[in-house]
Structures are given as structure tokens and as C-alpha cells.
UniProtKB/TrEMBL annotation:
SMART domains: AAA. This is ABC transporter ATP-binding protein. SUPFAM superfamilies: P-loop containing nucleoside triphosphate hydrolases. CDD domains: ABC_MJ0796_LolCDE_FtsE. GO terms for molecular function: ATP binding. It holds the Pfam family ABC_tran. It comes from Plantactinospora endophytica. Residues 9-246 form the ABC transporter domain.
């Protein structure tokens, strides 16, 4: 269980290398950071800086090649595949850029699925509440193709939160949405943080999206390259411009 002193997620000396055509890519190169319970953190950085790798390692979707990942009091990086699958199912929620809903299932069944996979027979009422919480009480019987992009992402958020996970990981959750719809989704995530103390960790390219978080972490070449607490879109954009200039070699 997570106690008040314990961060929701703790990363220590995280390394992730990939072998690619005989060369080694260091996607993460020694990242240590804590994500407090009830906090909303955005991760930003130039393309290829390691954002998705960090999110995937922290969520137990990928294994680091070195270092430690702790979720509450549990160390993830050395769990067996079976225990890791179980832990992801019970304690982690994940939202993807492309929603990843099952096209043949209604919104109601998409949301019920994680509970069913966990061996439970979900009560109709709890699925309805989960969908009502994201403003979709009237869309229970719709399939993904019958919903707008923003509505599909809301179903995906309801699905990710129905198990009451300790941490919600979101990889570019507004990347496939127009800016107005994206803002609605971000307002929803912000509300989950404020009303439920939901811990949220989000990768984004968008300074406006990042400014919804309490804190923005910047990555460069697989390492932490600073943070902004209480970010504004302007401050985030300025940092990103600096990092991108460094990444392209314009500044050293
Ligand atoms: N499966 C893989 N095999 C080989 N290299 C990989 C793999 N996944 C990621 N990489 C490399 O690791 C580095 C970090 O990738 P990652 O996807 O984490 O970056 P990112 O910051 O999320 O990028 P983007 O903003 O473009 O999505 C990149 O150089 C990428 O090419």
C-alpha cells in the first residue's frame, strides 16, 4: 500500500538500452525521480529523448535494463511476467494516444473489461458511474466508431480508472484530438487529480497540455534536464525551445 510519505512511483538510476542493428541506443541513461501520490506530472522533451520509454518502464509495460522502479511499496523491475501482468491489471491504468478501445464492444463493455479480466463480474451500476464520471452516462450502448475522438478518449479514461488504479499513465492522451477537445480531456484528468487525489503521469508534446500538470519534467538524451513546478504554457514552451536547440546542436 502507498503511505503518505511514500511516493506513488519512485524511479532510481533507470537505464534502458535497446540493441538496434548492431548499435546500442540509450533510451534512458540514469533517471532518478519521485512522483508523489496525488500529483499530476507531465514529461516533455525533444523527439527521441526517452519520454515513452520512461512511461513504459514506470508502468511495467517495459523492463529497464538497469535501476529500480517502485510502485508504492512494490518493486516492479524484478517481478516475474505473471506477477507484473497482475500488478498492471490491479494497480495501474494506462491511456494511449489512439484510445485502444475494442471496436466491437460498446462503451459499457469496454469499461467493464478490466474488471472482467480481473475475474470479477462487474455490477452494471459501477460501470454506469464510471462512464457518468467522464460525462458519458448517455453513451453506454455506443461502439467506438459511433463516438467522437474526445468521447472515445473519455471511455478509455473510464476504462483505465474503473479499477481505481494507484497511478494513471497517459501517453500523449490529447495527441489525436483537436485542441478544444484535448482541453476537455485535460480538464477531466485535472479534476481526477483534485477530486480523487489520482496520481497522473502524462507524456505530451504540447506546452498547453503540460501546463495542466503540477510539475513538468524535461528529458534530454535519456537524462533529466530540469523541471518546472506550477508551469505555464509560455514557460514550458521556452524550455522546450532551449532543449530542442541543444538537441539539434545549435546550442552547446
Ligand atoms: N523498441 C525499440 N528498439 C530500438 N530503439 C528504440 C525502441 N524504442 C525506443 N527506441 C529508441 O529509444 C530512444 C527513445 O525513444 P522514446 O520513444 O522513449 O522517445 P520519445 O521521447 O518518447 O520520442 P517521441 O517524442 O518521438 O515519441 C529513441 O532513440 C528511440 O529510437
Amino acid at each position: 500500500m502507498t503511505t503518505s510519505e511514500e511516493p506513488a512511483v519512485r524511479l532510481r538510476g533507470l537505464h534502458r538500452t535497446y540493441g538496434h542493428r548492431g548499435t546500442t541506443v540509450r533510451a534512458l541513461n540514469g533517471v532518478s525521480v519521485d512522483f508523489p501520490a496525488g500529483s499530476f506530472t507531465a514529461v516533455m522533451g525533444p523527439s527521441g529523448s526517452g519520454k515513452s520509454t520512461l512511461l513504459h518502464c514506470a508502468a511495467g509495460l517495459d523492463r529497464p535494463t538497469g535501476g529500480e522502479v517502485h510502485l508504492g511499496g512494490t518493486r516492479l523491475d524484478d517481478l516475474s511476467e505473471t506477477r507484473l501482468t497482475l500488478l498492471r491489471r490491479q494497480r495501474i491504468g494506462f491511456v494511449f494516444q489512439q484510445f485502444n478501445l475494442l471496436p466491437a464492444l460498446t462503451a459499457e463493455l469496454n469499461v467493464a473489461l478490466p474488471l472482467m479480466l480481473g475475474g470479477r463480474r462487474p455490477k452494471r451500476a459501477e460501470i454506469r458511474v464510471a462512464l457518468a464520471d467522464v460525462g458519458l452516462a448517455d453513451r453506454l450502448g455506443h461502439r467506438p466508431a459511433e463516438l467522437s475522438g474526445g468521447q472515445q478518449q473519455r471511455v478509455a479514461i473510464a476504462r483505465a480508472l474503473v479499477t481505481r488504479p494507484e497511478v494513471l499513465f497517459a501517453d500523449e492522451p490529447t495527441g489525436a484530438l483537436d485542441s478544444a477537445t484535448g482541453r476537455e480531456v485535460l480538464t477531466l484528468l485535472r479534476g481526477m487529480v483534485e477530486e480523487r487525489r489520482q496520481t497522473v503521469l502524462m507524456v505530451t508534446h504540447d506546452p498547453v497540455a503540460a501546463a495542466y500538470a503540477d510539475r513538468v519534467l524535461f528529458l534530454r538524451d535519456g537524462r533529466l534536464a530540469g523541471e518546472l513546478v506550477g508551469p505555464t504554457p509560455q514557460a514550458v514552451a521556452e524550455r522546450m525551445t532551449g532543449l530542442e536547440a541543444e538537441a539539434s546542436g545549435a546550442v552547446r
